[in-house]
Amino acid sequence: xxxxxxxxxxxxxxxxxxxxxxxxxxxxxxxxxxxxxxxxxxxxxxxxxxxxxxxxxxxxxxxxxxxxxxxxxxxxxxxxxxxxxxxxxxxxxxxxxxxxxxxxxxxxxxxxxxxxxxxxxxxxxxxxxxxxxxxxxxxxxxxxxxxxxxxxxxxxxxxxxxxxxxxxxxxxxxxxxxxxxxxxxxxxxxxxxxxxxxxxxxxxxxxxxxxxxxxxxxxxxxxxxxxxxxxxxxxxxxxxxxxxxxxxxxxxxxxxxxxxxxxxxxxxxxxxxxxxxxxxxxxxxxxxxxxxxxxxxxxxxxxxxxxxxxxxxxxxxxxxxxxxxxxxxxxxxxxxxxxxxxxxxxxxxxxxxxxxxxxxxxxxxxxxxxxxxxxxxxxxxxxxxxxxxxxxxxxxxxxxxxxxxxxxxxxxxxxxxxxxxxxxxxxxxxxxxxxxxxxxxxxxxxxxxxxxxxxxxxxxxxxxxxxxxx
Length: 470
Ligand SMILES: Cc1cc2nc3c(=O)[nH]c(=O)nc-3n(C[C@H](O)[C@H](O)[C@H](O)COP(=O)(O)OP(=O)(O)OC[C@H]3O[C@@H](n4cnc5c(N)ncnc54)[C@H](O)[C@@H]3O)c2cc1C
Fold this sequence. Notes:
The protein has helices at 2-10, 68-79, 103-108, 150-163, 220-224, 244-249, 290-300, 302-305, 335-338, 349-366, 376-404, 408-418, 421-433, 441-469, and strands spanning 21-23, 29-33, 44-45, 60-64, 83-88, 100-101, 118-120, 122-126, 132-135, 145-147, 167-177, 186-192, 202-208, 210-213, 232-241, 253-259, 263-272, 277-283, 309-319, 327-328, 331-333. 36% of the residues lie in helices and 25% in strands. It is globular and about 65 Å long. Residues 64-70, 87-90, 93, 95-100, 172-173, 214-216, 220, 235, 237, 280, 316, 318, 335-337, 341, 346-350, 352 line the site of flavin-adenine dinucleotide (FAD). GO terms for molecular function: FAD binding; geranylgeranyl diphosphate reductase activity; geranylgeranyl reductase activity.
């Protein structure tokens, strides 16, 4: 089971191979010229469909939330000729987050290297009994995991959306009035803070033709469309400034700790940032004990962070699975608002930005660069493409979490397995590029045997531990 899961995990699907020609159900074929993710280059639709034309203006879309999902969505919309409004309640928001991003995100989203604090090329996976396995030895010289501070990444993406024509509003979205038919606008209610410090802001309304909910795990847009709830983990993190000589150790190295002490169902981490480390952990099942798990994570790393000063304490929910409903009418959810975080790794930044972009592309395509109204069918194309591309990834990581994070013996087996070069290569390739890593049948067979061996040893170990605790 585990080896099958791992094999599927390492064989993640290729992300969104863009097909420039496709047919809309019952409608003519349109031709989209790919934008190659370059700034200011536009996505042009050159043949038509038959939804009502927008006259005297272009299609108006509001993006609620200016995290990676919202920033990426607003940029794509603005580039595609849509009149775009990005509403963010806090323009200097520091989203609680480990800030680890895969290499492919740097290229796909054209991120400048100076917004990446650290390039991690070494990762230590540390077992419940403190056996440390070095992973990352298979990385090529140019490969790394990027470490960002979210206040830097998010504001960069928002600024870029603005440069491309989006109107950025510093405001708190409150609610929306739904239209009575398919052509009348949504009326958004929000408090505008622009230019003011403190206070509750000015009450405002905005009329738009469509809405993208990119307002994170506690999404008000999701509530507005009655999207339903999801299970969530609570994740806790401390930013700790450590002495320079200690920082040298973490220069290009990150640590992951597993064990009942740091989390019953997740992992603890130490991720390096510009002048500090981010130390954190998470749990779905024992949320009330999160501070105890955090203390244990800090204790496990204590020699390496000795003399450190906590400069920020932060916590936030992480969705566990997609919401029951992700779109209604001309409103769609993306990123955490939709529930796009992978289990096992807790990764959500790339998936947020990617879903924001994918949803915006569906709107640009469906509206023919803002010239026509869109309908639910246009937004559904984004969901179909998303599910086709990423559903297997989410499922496999779910299985892996169940197999390997269920007990300390299983975690020991997991860490042992991570010592295998083939596992490392396949895992890193899948994480860094979100694409199929070509396998080697002989190595796959060895991996299957080794995985079973590790789990058998783990069970034997568990029996020994049970005897001790009797
Ligand atoms: C402690 C922790 C560690 C994590 N570590 C990692 C990691 O290392 N790597 C990784 O890939 N993922 C990580 N994640 C997950 C990642 O943070 C999320 O998946 C990601 O932030 C989702 O992006 P988003 O744009 O969908 O939502 P968010 O980043 O939550 O952005 C939502 C935005 O909407 C704004 N907003 C909310 N409500 C309103 C409103 N009513 N009006 C206006 N604006 C509003 C917020 O201010 C915010 O800017 C971590 C999460 C946590 C909690």
